[in-house]
Specification:
Blueprint (H helix, E strand, L loop, with lengths): L10 E4 L5 H10 L3 E4 L3 E5 L4 H13 L3 E4 L2 H14 L2 H10 L1 E4 L2 H9 L6 E2 L5 H11 L8 E5 L6 H9 L3 E5 L2 E5 L5 H10 L5 E4 L2 H14 L2 H9 L3 E4 L2 H9 L12 H12 L1
Parallel strand pairs: 1-2, 1-10, 4-5, 4-7, 5-6, 7-8, 10-11
Antiparallel strand pairs: 3-9
Helix pairs in contact: 3-5, 8-10, 9-11
Length: 273
Amino acid sequence: MAEPGPLTGRVVGVTAHRRAEDQIAALERRGARVIHAPALKVEPVDQDGPLAAASRALFEARPDLVLITTGYGLRRWHDAAVAQGFDAELLICLHEAAVYVRGPKGRGAVRGLGLEDAGMSADETTAGLVDLVLAEHGGDLTGRTVGLQLHGIADVAQRRRLTDAGARVLTVTPYRWAPADDDGQVPALIREAAAGRVDAITFTAAPAVDALFSTAEELGLHEELLAAFRNGMLAATVGPVTAAPLEAMGLEPLVPERFRMGAMLKQLVDALS
């Protein structure tokens, strides 16, 4: 008979859509029962006319700086550029601008295009990325044009910080978030959690937190879901950006030192076992 894993008898909700299979397999190998409730999915916009229009507007503006918030976003942007025939213009734009990246995945994507970045944020957050850019330019971006690659949602606060410093900011959005719950698993997870039958829920993107609690509100179970977290159900996050909306609700999610899925799962296993 196989030895029981460290998560035997535990129930874990997984809200991810992208790379969910790897996460689920890792949890099940350790004995957990997994409820897969993908709250949102990443939807590429390869054939999206507005993406091409926004890209061409950025190229014509000849930006001084380009901020890359996700490696996935840059890859989707380049894929769309190839599909729609503006890949050469994209590479010229990135070559001529000072490119700053939010984290190692963004740096890897930049290098994958044969380019180098001008700097990376210390904490892998968009706020940290803007901190870096402002620090390196003395807090004054007057007369400068900044290209900002958004990561599925508009980060209004960070864009405002750039414009307040005098920058002209042009954005591109290579992918967006879309509903992913085709089988009604998100309400099922919420009901199980509200009833005290879930030990932990994992989050790999901040929008998934908002989607889960928005669905709970629709079900009339928002307070019950909050109470479940406050009474011992763990919220495991992949990093501080994902943790932020949970912390804003007064919760204390798990945040690994390394902002990676593997580190999140190790921290969760340690906490539950």
